[in-house]
């Protein structure tokens, strides 16, 4: 690296370097604990959202979602994909037409337009990291015919919350 580039690299590093220590379990210094979604905008229960990384130079966001015991995220689908790592607790998730058991450090890929929903087990919270494109399409909710299609599978029918 020549001297000019090294100088530029040092400046960028200085401008963006930061450390946010974990304060409590899955709570970080300076990271606000937000509502998952606006109340009434879509069905969900007992979910919080934290935006951990949101750098315009990265074109991606890393969020941390946490559901309380029996809490669940919205049943939805969209074009953008999710890369998920379970960070805390245990639960289950619907991805497409499969209901999967998940626990700490499991990885879950949610492909484009796969119906998905996460739910914490009754005796533990469920927290996970979720990486998404910064620019992404809006989630779609299932209509009656999509729900009927999903409910043809009895495991899926018993799992989903709407
Ligand atoms: Mn989603």
List keywords for this structure.
about 160 residues, alpha+beta, Jelly Rolls, eight-stranded antiparallel sheet, 10 strands, about 15% helix
Describe the model.
This protein is α+β, with helices and mostly antiparallel strands. It contains three helices and ten strands. Strands 3, 4, 5, 6, 7, 8, 9 and 10 form an eight-stranded antiparallel sheet that branches. The model has no long low-confidence stretch (mean pLDDT 92). Bound molecules: manganese (II) ion. Manganese (II) ion binds next to loops.
SSE arrangement:
Blueprint: H1 3-16, E1 22-24, E2 27-28, E3 34-35, E4 45-53, E5 60-72, E6 82-95, E7 98-103, E8 107-110, E9 116-120, E10 126-133, H2 144-150, H3 154-159
Antiparallel strand pairs: 1-2, 3-4, 4-5, 5-10, 6-7, 6-8, 6-9, 6-10
The protein binds manganese (II) ion (MN).
The shape is globular
Count of discrete structural domains: 1
- What is the CATH class designation? Mainly Beta
Low-confidence stretches: none
Strand segment count: 10
**What is the name of the CATH topology?**
Jelly Rolls
| Average predicted local confidence, pLDDT | 92
Helix/strand-derived category reads alpha+beta
N-to-C order of helices and strands = HEEEEEEEEEEHH
What is the level-2 CATH architecture name?
Answer: Sandwich
Q: Tell me the fraction of residues in β-strands, as a range.
A: 35-45%
What binds here, in terms of ligands, is: manganese (II) ion
């Amino acid at each position: 690296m020549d001297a000019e580039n090294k100088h530029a690299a040092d400046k960028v590093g200085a401008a963006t370097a930061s450390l946010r220590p974990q304060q409590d379990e899955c709570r970080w210094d300076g990271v606000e604990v937000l509502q998952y979604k606006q109340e009434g905008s879509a069905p969900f229960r007992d979910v919080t959202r934290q935006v951990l990384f949101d750098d315009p130079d990265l074109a991606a966001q890393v969020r941390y979602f946490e559901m309380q015991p029996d809490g669940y995220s919205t049943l939805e689908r969209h074009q953008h994909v999710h890369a998920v790592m379970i960070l805390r607790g245990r639960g289950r998730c619907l991805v497409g037409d499969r209901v999967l058991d998940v626990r700490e450090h499991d990885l879950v890929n949610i492909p484009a337009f796969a119906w998905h929903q996460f739910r914490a087990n009754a005796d533990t919270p469920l927290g996970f990291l979720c990486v998404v494109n910064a620019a992404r399409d809006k989630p779609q909710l299932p209509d009656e015919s999509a729900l009927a299609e999903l409910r043809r599978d009895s495991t899926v029918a018993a799992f989903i919350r709407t």
